[in-house]
Amino acid sequence: MTQPPPVPSGQGLDALAPPPPAPPRRDPLAPPPPWTGPPTVILRYAEVDTAVLPVVEPGPPPAATPAAPPPHPSTAPWPVPTATPPASFRTAPPNPPTVLPAALAATSPEPGTPLAEPGTAAPAAPEGAGSGQVGWWRRNRWGLLALLPALVLALGPGVKDGYEQYSQAEYLEPVGVGADGWVEFAAARIRLVELVEVPSVPARGSRQVTLPEGVRVWRATLAFELPDPEALIGCLPYLEDRDGRLFSANPPELNGARLPVTRCAADDPAQRSLQTEAYFVLPGPATPAALRIVKATQRPRYARLPVG
Amino acid sequence: MTVPTDYPDPDSVTSHRAPPGPGQRMGLRAGAGTLIVAALAVGGAIANWRPINGGGAEARERPFVQAGRFGETVSTRVFDATVLDVRGAAKVSNGGQSHDTAGVWIVLRVRLATRDRAMSIGYAALRDQRDREFRATTRFTQPLVGAGRVLQPGIPVEGDLAFEVPRDAATRLSAYFGQEQIDIRMDDLAEVLLPTVDKARVDEWASAPAPVPLASARAVAP
Fold it and tell me: Considering the domain boundaries, does residue A294 fall inside one?
């Protein structure tokens, strides 16, 4: 009596069955057979607006044979799956590849090149051309638009305050003479008629004007043309020497001298031209360089009339 | 169903974020705008914060002091100051009128000169060891300080300045001069330490019956 072959433990009689036949070989160049299985979805990620969303798109079916490479989705002849994706997924239009954002693409060797994914790369659609992928500029368009008013709000008050302080602090912008020797300043015209050194000044009454040694007295004669009689009210003349020092008119050193009043406006409002004098005391070595006419409301501008 | 290994397994995605709806997007943008406005408001408030005597403002905005010794010229950025003499008296006379005091008068003979432009010396004060400040008296006109006397560059002016101080403060004083009359924050100040006098000397000043005449300001040779 022939003994049956021993049965491997745990496999039952199947272990004794002959091996299944090998699957038929398939021409690798032939198109794959149509997919008859259930629909398959492939999850990818694409940047849409500000959120990273999973994009559901039809994917290829499993390979018919292990040797066959996965087909390209855009060329796959499989029927479009009819399965409805979950409600929380956005169904992406049928263009696949994820494109680098503009900011990242700038550092890429080839800006705009789709992310290389074997078998899935396809030419990137133009940005904003319905590709469903949004560039950096478009994503941040509202922020960029808001940047301009934000900068104005942030910098405007400081700039305005700084300009006002600059304007009110000093006389910084000289207004020079024209070809005719007149200066157009504060809606008036000013001309330096002469600047001469005077050996002495007449005293008032019985008083005497005593000047210290080593100083000199200068007299400036100014002419004004005043279309507006009050155009230069409040103006002050200063004499500038070659070192840039400024000397005020009719200083206390000349107290007791009989000096005319230095005026920038005529007593008669109908008078349109005026001539006045101003006296200055300078140290002996100082040499006059220019006469300045300043007016507080005209800061930072002032009239500068060079001597000679 | 099998999935090629080149594609991620759908089951491996553990979480998702739904795309924001129109209302949610508007909310996000409104929130971003609110944050921007809030940042601007906070920044503006910080930039415009002007604490009054807070945050070390008194030390931060203290004057720039140039110190010198009695008899020497102390130069600041805009003027020079020299204290030439110190006297004390129970009475001073100015313009033919005498003025007494319950303390003692300290009279300084000073020389002042501006550097670059015509200007006045608006601040003159004495400070004692307890840092008490005694401004130049305003009981009568003192033309050398305040807006009365405009100094010309390079032309020094000499004159007397009178200060009324308590007797206990007169033994050791420092004189200060500045351009601004009221607000001396971040101003140039010239500091001159005056000679120390003993209490007996102060009492002698305070008991002298004759008034000390104050010399008016006058220009001197450069």
Answer: yes
